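Continuing from the previous page of notes. For each protein in this section, the sequence appears first, followed by its structure tokens. Read the first protein now.
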Amino acid sequence: MGIKVAKFGGSSVADALQIEKIKNIIEKDGSIKYVVVSAPGKRFSDDSKITDLLYLCKTHIEHKIPYEQIFQVIVDRFTAVGVALRTDVNLKQEFDVIRENMEQGASADYIASRGEYLNAKLIAAYIGYDFVDAASIVRFSDKGRFMEESTNTAIQHELSKHENAVIPGFYGAKMDGTVRTFSRGGSDITGALVARAMGADVYENWTDVSGFLMADPRIVKDPKPISTISYKELRELSYMGASVLHEDAIYPARIANIPINIRNTNKPEDPGTMITAEPDKCDSRIISGIAGSKNFTVIAISKNGLSGERGFIRKLAGILEDNDIAIEHLPSGIDTLSVVIENQALGGKLDDITEEIQRQLKPDHVETFDNMALIATVGSGMSARTGVSARLFTALAEAGVNIRMIDQGSSEMNIIVGVENKDFEKAIKAIYDAFVS
């Protein structure tokens, strides 16, 4: 039997009922040896996440505003879970320690991490696993930089002593024991780190959705689920705005070639989405998914003889770098070049940038479009099929969508089109219908 590492997110550990589901999942699958948990998330739409309440406590303390009422909400919620699960964890002692540290000026990282810490303690006691504090195995330098290899060694050394263990996600510690957190969503990173260190056969990431969908369900009605997807395809969709795992959360598992299975705690019978190193060769799909974002600006530059002018792109990139602006895409022709930039990144600098382009590059013509949306159609199967581009462009034409820009990556894994914001939803529906319906 292989080893699985399972990470359960905030919605999966929101209350005692959800934690009971976790126990059932683990009992039915004896290969889940190590469990990483988040802090309790929202139980209903108007509820608060425990981590948000902890941050609020810290803010109140910093501004010398009474925080006890907020902290009591946290105490009551964990106490209710402990009672419902009938665990023997001494929560009062834990709360006393946390309260004392808060009043003595504990850092925001320490305070925010207590949601994961307390939840892991409760869940470990409930399912009969050992508790291993992430502060003892996830390492940060004295300057707060994550220490990847030191962490890998520490996890291997400690968890080899435990046949089964629950580890809180989201945080680790510096060498002096000071708690340090990852960014939001850090529990995903912790899970991947444990999977890599312990040589897991699969890293299961349990949440409240049954994997990824081929398109945004707010735009396309009942889009088909994605059964398998490669890391590269996932990166393309994530870059274009799809709500998928952050790259930092994937990286440790990816470098160890460990598949990631996105599962639904509320529907454990669903297979979810499997993320693999390479595309599934047996998969007959042409595309894996469609994603996009609105509100980009395109600066279209034309100049006779541009393709033969040395240093043109370097100078253009320098102008944008001087203004601290990243280039999203750079489609080009013989005498034309377009720069795609997020509107938000421009920060009101568009006029200054175009003036500098005129001064330094002396183009024949510069035109800007600030109401653009980008849509990426992604799939490893596209490069092996003829007529994919024709089908996509025909679908958009028949839907009455005017394509303002086309860009295709060298891997031939994606086709990006630029359309006006007003055509964004219509374009995604048209592409989906052309390839999926």
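Done with the first. The second protein uses the same format. Note its length before scrolling.
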Amino acid sequence: TILMKGGAWWLTGSVSLLSDALESLVNLAGASFALLMVTVAAMPADEEHPYGHHKAEYFSSGFEGGLILVAALAILWAAVQRLLTPQPVEQLGWGLSLTVISSLLNAALAWAMLRKAREVRSMALEGDARHLFTDVWTSAGVVLGLVAVAFTGWLWLDPLVAMLVAANIVREGVSLVRRSVDGLMDRALEPQVQAQIEKALDGFRHPTLRFDHISTRRAGARRFVDLHMH
């Protein structure tokens, strides 16, 4: 998909297609780091890490969010340059065809990854899937923008679409970084899960047995509960 989007930019000279190709390049870097972190997270607990290595997945989401923000800055820089010096867009038909094909492939991959991420509760996989979905919507916006350029002849629409792409991926990048920080800060489990824990403990409570100081946290795909039993 990177080669197809890069080819689309090379054929047309469109800065919005360049922004689309740059985001796909970030996808590759993010996915490579996510693969490394998922591998680390799967390692068993040891003496130095008695709770396991599951939090490694949060580093993946934070890293990918940072990459997205860097890509957005690069896109904005290229868009401003093109806005100051407009250039015609060439061979638009071939460029748009390559972009649409690569986007359909990305959409299928992102859907499969998100379904698997929810199944195994993987933050790294979910972050990568959501980034891919962002890429798909980005491509759709770029295609619509370039079709508008072809019909109107307004060359300034091309860099404007690129700026909108940058703004959209900044939003996604900030969201990924925030969720990564939440995980590293030991965010409590979901209210419905905490309710299940209380229900389970209710089955053991007795005038001579009680529980207090119940605290929960999530680390990657694992969920932990600490409590005092009296």
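What the second structure shows: The chain has a mean pLDDT of 81. The helical segments are 2-12, 15-41, 56-84, 92-120, 123-152, 157-184, 191-202. We return to this in next week's lecture.
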